[in-house]
Amino acid sequence: MFIEQGIRKENKFWKYLLGSTVIIAMSFIGQLPLVITVVAKTVLTGKSYPMTNEGVMHFLDSNLTLFLLLLSFVFAFAGIYFVVKYFHKQTMLSVTTSRNKIDWNRILFSFGLWSLISVASVLIYTFINPELYLLDFKPIPFTILFVIAVVLIPIQTSTEEYVFRGYLMQGFGNLAQNKWFPLLMTSLIFGGMHLFNPEVAKIGNVIFVYYIGTGLFLGIITLMDEGMELALGFHAANNLIGALLITSDWSAFQTHSVFKDISEPHAGFDIIMPVVLIYPVLLLIFSRKYQWENWKEKLTGTIDSND
Known about the structure:
Helices cover 68% and strands 3% of the residues. The protein is an all-alpha fold. This is Abortive infection protein.
């Protein structure tokens, strides 16, 4: 059982708090190249240092900014490896899946399914509302973006999944000895992590329905499938397709994507539609394909210790 693999007497919850601090510290170290690059440009050009996140996002070329932003996740992933192996004496496999090895077919199926839905959604939106989207394809910048995104975005999304659906899921399981509390807490923290995204300021707090709902969806498929493979594939597809296909001046990722959203952001049904409509359909597809059973026990049941 996936969540039970981290349930050990020596895995006290304080270790997860300390481990999370190490991971955050490694992420901050990984952000230093971005800070240094921005400072260097201010020295060379005489421009003022940007005082807001939005200013930083627009200060450098978007491809360079994206590369430097994603670089911090490489450091954070190294932090995850360190704390899992040396703090908790576990293998990375044990915080990935309950299977004997990672099921790459599950990752690819989830990635392919959500990629197909995402691409279709963008094309439909741009076809129905052409006045709201600008075709902004530039071959050379897009090629550079493609290389950066394909290499580093899966690291970014995998890092987040290992933190929330792997490390912290098992950590809160150790604390609560049940499954509903880890599912709830990791979803809330995952949503809260997006608090400073520029989308929140533009659209409003209603967007947390999407963020927390997405965290809940990823947690459910992890617990039901006894591993993170489906969540890993979904999250990678979501961010990768988003970065390559569409951007806007107010989004978290500024990229040389194919399309640019020039509409005025607002809170509409499209914000909550994934949570109330699309995610339930995906749950149905996954449950049928992988023959999920015992939903109540897997999502809310108590945890049996390995000791």
